Amino acid sequence: MKFNKKYTNLLFALLMSILMALLMSGVLTAIHLGFTPNFIAQWLHSFVLAWPIAFPGILVIAPVVRKIVESLTD
Questions:
Q1: Which of 15, 27, 49, 62 has the most Cβ atoms closer than 10 angstroms to its Cβ?
Q2: Single pTM value for the model
């Protein structure tokens, strides 16, 4: 499935936020609780709390980061 180019930034933020929220919630759940029998349930619970923060955060922060990177590179 292909999307129109006008959705590039939105798709980037969506995919990046999902992957980063999954990664960070998994790592932090493991650090704080260990690999308990209910680890997956706790991880998914943490993800559900983290993702709604990550998605709009990336929508706001990504353009700023792109400008900083552009100013630091040739």
A1: 62
A2: 0.84
